[in-house]
Amino acid sequence: MEGIRSSSVLSCYYSSKTHFKLRRQPLEHCFLSLPPPPPPPRHPASRPKVRISLPSMALQVQDQQSFHKSKEMLPKIDKSGRFCSPRAARELALLIVYASCLQGSDPIRLFEKRINAAREPGYEFDKASLLQYNHMSFGGPPVTTHSVEEADELLRSDEQDSAIEAEVLSAPPKLVYSKLLLSFTRKLLVATVDKWDNHVLAIDKVVPSNWKNEPAGRILELSILHLAMSEITVLGTRHPIVINEAVDLAKRFCDGAAPRIINGCLRTFVKDLAGTSTAQTSNSKLEVPLQV
């Protein structure tokens, strides 16, 4: 036990004028005994909202057209019946980073804890829910329904999809994700932890001031930025792909302004990277070799 007490892990804390950072602290201060991390919250704007117009009693609900259209784009499932799309791995990585910040635990250890957690007696996971799960479920502009029944049907559909989402994201990862995706998720988490402090500085240069002033309310958005920047700089994924994936994650789990802001932040980050690389190349060409 003494050896365990002396070990340390990375945990999150808030600095005075920036967002959360990672630091090392004693293991007993981490909340690794908590249940599986909750899925990232979907902003209330992504849920149907009913507004009644008294003269016509027409109900206004959030547009489900894009949602139902996207349901046709089923997630990619491998022969074992598990997710094999990189989108699922990035979503899992976001869930882990978000939960680690809430719990004050190390993302990699939290990931390993979830991977190796024993199943509860009698637990069964219905793999059919993977086919019903939609990674591209986004909100949209309002539409008008002409009856209470039609509005109620849309609400019931949304509640059913939310239940499927909660079941999939809280299930043991080995039942949901392929081995390749779990390996990719771990690499992404390792890269994120290794580059965290460097990217804190980069993020501070590109995010709006109101995000800096309310870091506790922007954990999800900042986690998306950290994951995307690490995938670009460490894993070498082409930045258009990473930016598109980050924007889609923001559309899915954050408020209405977040996707646009994250898109702008990452494009600025990539532009700065390209400028730094060009400057380093120019400096290396100007160096004169020593004559021996």
Automatic annotation (TrEMBL):
InterPro entries: NusB-like_sf, NusB_fam, NusB_RsmB_TIM44. Residues 185-271 form the NusB/RsmB/TIM44 domain. Coiled coil: none annotated. One of its GO terms (cellular component) is chloroplast. The keyword Secreted does not apply. Keywords: RNA-binding, Transcription, Transcription antitermination, Transcription regulation. The keyword Membrane does not apply. SUPFAM superfamilies: NusB-like. GO terms for biological process: DNA-templated transcription termination; transcription antitermination. It comes from Gossypium laxum. This is NusB/RsmB/TIM44 domain-containing protein. GO terms for molecular function: RNA binding. It comes from the Eukaryota. Belongs to the NusB family.
